[in-house]
Amino acid sequence: MSAEGLSAPQKSDRQTADRQTADRRPDALTLEVVELIGDVVARFYADFEDAAAEHSLTGAQARLLSLLSLEPLPMRKLAHKLRCEPSNVTGIVDRLESRGLVERRPDPADRRVKLAAVTDEGRGVARGLRDELRFAREPLAGLSRAEREVLRELLRRMLGA
Fold this sequence. Notes:
Elements: H1 8-24, H2 28-54, H3 59-68, E1 73-74, H4 75-82, H5 86-98, E2 102-107, E3 110-118, H6 120-131, H7 134-141, H8 145-160
Antiparallel strand pairs: 1-3, 2-3
């Protein structure tokens, strides 16, 4: 419907709605920052996939192994962190377990729950993955410690928002 066919209150409501929509549109700087963040994430994932392939792992297997190198986790928690179904995690853990990189253990707090835990060999592979992430290491090395600390705080603020 054209604005000419609207009553005065309807025109006012439409103009207010148009202004609110315009106010929500990101400015050029925000759009550029969002695009740069997307580029950083894409480059990190590509580098991570390359590092995983060097160890004959899929990206999902490498991410799971990296998570488990920090602490043993129940399958449900792994699924939540990887944003996938628990049945997918079971398959990934099965494949890593067959290679001797992870093992299943009873949870000491609840013996009904199984934890996936990294083996010593798996911990070594996870360390190798981290060491091979060129993109994560090289550009950050070009920043001073103070710049990396500022970046870290800005990213934490963004994630907390």
